[in-house]
Predict the 3D structure of the following.
Amino acid sequence: MVEPLLCMTGIDKAFGSTHALIDVDLEVHAGEVLGLLGENGAGKSTLVKILAGVHGPDSGEMRLDGLPYRPNSPNDARRSGIAVIHQEPSLAPHLTVAENIVLGREDLRAGFFLRDQREMVRACLRRLHRQDIDPDQRVSGLGAAARQIVEVVRALAFDARVLVMDEPTSALGKQDVVQLFELVRRLRAENVGIIYISHFLEEVQQVADRYLVLRDGAAVGHGDAKDATIEDWIEQMSGRRIEDVYPDRSREPVGDVVLSVRELAGAHLPHRVEFDLRRGEIFGIAGLCGSGRTEFLRCLFGLDPVRRGEVKIGVTTDNGAAPRRRLQQGVGMLVEDRQVEGLALDRTLVENLSLSRPMARFGWLSWRAANTEAQGWIDRLGIRTTGPRQVVGDLSGGNQQKVAIARLLHHDVDILCLDEPTRGVDVGSKAEIYRLMVDLVSQGKSILIVSSYLPELLGVCHRIAVMRRGELSSARPTAEWDEQSLLASAVGGAS
């Protein structure tokens, strides 16, 4: 048998009384894609951090190319050929593509790049057939897919032999995902070993050769990807079989129109939006990245300026309100970028919930009441945390998303605008969020949801409209859509 490129054996890691990893084995061969699966908090991130030199294992051993491997730092790991593309962007937006790619191994003379470094960057881009990316362009001007390519190129520039891709498609549109999969196959053909982490289990089925499932810090399943089903993986990840991820939404929305939008246009996007949202309705907005979906929600909530149009909430017309006023009117928003705008990562969970709606008793702030309220949301949403006083930045991405949702629900708004609500969330937690959405609309609340994940829209929405080049199509009942017709409408084809 061919010796694995990377072998991790008997890996244990504890943080105080919490055992993050328990006797975990992992192997990756050259030219192989290993799907690493598990719910938020299962131990995936800790295992990757040990591989990348961020943490050292409490016990166990690692071998790379048959030789002992124990990195003392992330730089040590990179020099050994281990590269990690994290879920949250790690590029410096104010630097150029070339500067980002060589960051950490620059060879400058009088403050300028050497010619061989610039040629190395161009060679890496050619290797991935992405000569369309200009090495001298600032990263801030690139789209999400191009930024992902730059992350990969940076890994290859460090001669990566093992590449970890953590939720690489969470910010990509469908066509960008297709291009990324082609890139993965190209790297596999070049004998790069790839660890692919994703909560989109259909993706893992498409790209993985083998899989490893973690649950509560332990390995609970492994094998050839072609021999496993998504249902098998869900059962292994959650410890229970989820028969139906999407809850029954057969109850049709009832009541009056609670939100009416006419001829709405933003400073840049969107160009024209018209629709009505009824009480008890889940209204979905599909569309490609850059189509204006997110910009529309931001204009509606008052985060971005409105150029023209009318927004009517109940019987009140208020076109250019600020977020504070929208909250007072019963409208809340879950933003797409939780780390930049959605949460204060250096603050505790209870502080995040209380920042915009403090808990008070007799006119005084009450931390006891705030802690009780926060614990209630922890229990209701299944947030994996040590308690209300844990710093949010120390939570996994999926649990951070749950905190952002809890913060929105804490306001008890009537209209919820959700931008990519299950981004970076495991399948078990997705099912919980979907059930929560259905419970909320059954109580008379209304939901606007923007999502790149088409099965999600088809699974939870009563009606769906498609945003294309800044204009929103007429809404149709979900039963009249499927993935193909949604995509065709998004790209401008027949639907």
Summary: The chain has two domains: 6-238, 257-491. Residues 88 and 119 are 28 Å apart (CA to CA).
